[in-house]
Amino acid sequence: MENRTNSKPLLAMKNIQKGFNDVPVLKGIDFNVNRGEIVAIIGSNGAGKSTLMNVLAGVHHADSGEIWFEGEKVSIDDPNVAERLRIGMVHQEPSLCENMLVYENIFLNREYRSALGHLDRPRMRKESTAVLENLGFHIDVEQRVRDISLVSKVIVSIAKAMLMNPKLLILDEVTAALNQKEVEHLFEIIHGLREKGPGIIFISHKIREIVQISDRVFVLRDGVEAGTFDRTVDTLREKDIINMMLGESKWKGEYSEREMGQVGDKILLSVKGLSKHEMFNDITFDLHENEIVGLAGLKGSGITELMYSIFGIMQYEGGELLMKGEPLKAALPEEAIRRGVCMITNDRQQEGLAMGLPIENNVLVASLNKTRGNGKFINKKLSTEIAKDYIAKLQIKTTGPQQQVQFLSGGNQQKVVVSKWLFRDSDVILIDEPTRGVDIKAKNEIYNLLLQEKARSKGIIVYSPETRELLNICNRIIIIDQGKIIAEVHRNEERFTEKGILEIMHSY
Amino acid sequence: MKLRKILRQELLWGAVILTVLLGRLTNPYFFVNNNIDVILYTTAIYGTLAIAESLVLLVGEIDLSIGISSVVSPALAIYLANWINTLAGGGNMVRGGYVMMSWWVIVGLTMLIATVTGIINGIIVVKGHVPPFVATIGMQYTVSGIGYIVTKGTPLFMTRVENSEVLGGSKFMNLVPLCFVLFLVIAVFFIYLTTSTKFGMRVYSTGGSTKSAKMCGINTDRWKIFMYVIAGALVGFTGLVFVSKLQSCDVTQTTGYEMTALAIAIIAGIELNGGGGRLIDTVKGALFMAVLSNVMSNVGFLSYHRTFVTGLFIVLFAIIHKLSDSKRLRELNVVEV
Questions:
Q1: Cβ of A80 and B217 within 8 Å?
Q2: I want to staple A114 with a disulfide (CB 3.0 to 4.6 A). Which of A118, A230, A463, B235 is the partner?
């Protein structure tokens, strides 16, 4: 294998430190990239990946440390400086204008035009096609971006970054929404890129991919470098990378065995071979009383779609679903709710709350018949009492039940959504990302709530991209990959640790 | 199949032709010179306002003040000119309702006032973060109110202003109404800008995906305000055409023209969320509405009937556009939740 390291690295970041609000995120990072090299950065959530890249892209300023680019010390004050240095960044969600054509997007803000301002469309069309062909990708550049496939959009985003002939290309989680075949196609293109000379930084959660594509792997843990693997020297093995990412922690969560309690015998929800074309396949498991089951998997595993199909937002196609022994195939969520199933989705602002309405209304909305008291109409006094009750029970920080939820913090908004369903008193609760965008204190309060409901004989199914969260509150974790169940890990097993779960997730 | 595609694409021309046929059917004098002139004049008015509205819609905003602004701007201009004149020691230039001042003074001040109104709209919406619906309706009422206060509801007559009838009433080369020719010039200009220059790229990207446009370094705020300003200028032009043709300036004339402009935009397929639609279609839509309006008044429809018919067509075209959208989405296998 040719030695790609020149004597001078393309990029050298020295002792970078960065903190937010007195909390240190990067604690002295040395990070290099050479020309023609693909370096992957990996680390758990919060390890500092995004922050490091944002410093490089000019979005944040490092508190201390130096950045050297092409042998010269630079100060990247804003994204324009980064662009001038020819550092290109491709983000997770393609930032393209969906309503415009492919070649228009590639040339947006860099259009070819005559002295009078007339756009040179033929030239832009030709060069866009050329840039894409250079990447080994053939697509009709006259299509509207909204009409092309997701992987095409990612490649167009890369082409757009390539237009400035970048010396350093950062690919930030670009494979997040792609399936395996699409990722392979993308990797062919990235490998081809390497021959042309730019240094490439590849950020991903998916260890399998990182092993496939990188020359070097830079592992971040808690704001420091945990280690580096170099393909020319070591064999890249997923197991080793995971070890380095997580250390030997045997952490199983903050709750004692007693607090976690026993799982009940009665089966609430029985999922038998549930499947939906291209989303999930042959999903089978039972949810008991007094149980919290966690679903673990990378984004795109079909978990959200599975939950939607149980709740009635989508419809499953094959298999059987039984709620308390009776078949359930909800055409609308209303039906699922009536049968005792509720769902807290991952988008509280759009789907969980009426932002402009007071807490009170939001809490009551799914259970209006309980607000009648003795009369026919909603009993205002009773309503306010109920709302106040939940505010106290869930410790929602607010000025009162009349405050509009849009003025609450993320964590408190989430608590209002939870209150709504607690008031409904459903038997089965599905939760998609229970603590997304929620501060630590509220996170813990929500965990307590879930355990309380569990103790009341409810059954809860939780999805979270944070394995730690699942380890904290679940009795068992079901690991799903590409729509199929690949493993089930019980709390009392050795493998019920962050490392164990991650190893299973990436061993496929 | 190809024919169906062509039909779908040239829906608007089809609508125009059908309505023209209908016109001839209901009115034996449809193709008489005078009637054609009326249609062309109406197209010029509708068209300029529709282009103004379309540009604002394209960047993802909306302007509901253009109707009233077109009527009030000339009035304000005249009173302003008069006031400045009296301050400078001159006499009253408005006597007994008759305006006695230079036409070009009126033109200059009208354009100024209308453009300034556009600037204010833009700043309130973009920098003040007021939803455009609210901001421009507020402007609509404000401008209307100012109009009444200043004119006290009395009309102004332009017959003593020399050359005032040229813009709205005269014919270019003795063939076609001048205002229509000027409208064509404006239309061609903006169609060219939006399809073949960086102007178009900025407008469509700002409206289609403000976030993405910003990430490319486009100053979306500036472009949104710019559209409001252009709308203001076009509104000023329209107001001058009104005043010239009718030879009077009457703020009590409730035009509802912003709704017509909006209707034309919708019929033309301009997306209300921004970033979609073509100005050439707006022009076709304006022609369609002008012919339709002519047919309706010849047949004797009162304004209520006309509103009803306009409403029907808005819904019809909105459904047609949505259906062709859904078909495309279905072809791509996109799930609409």
A1: yes
A2: A118
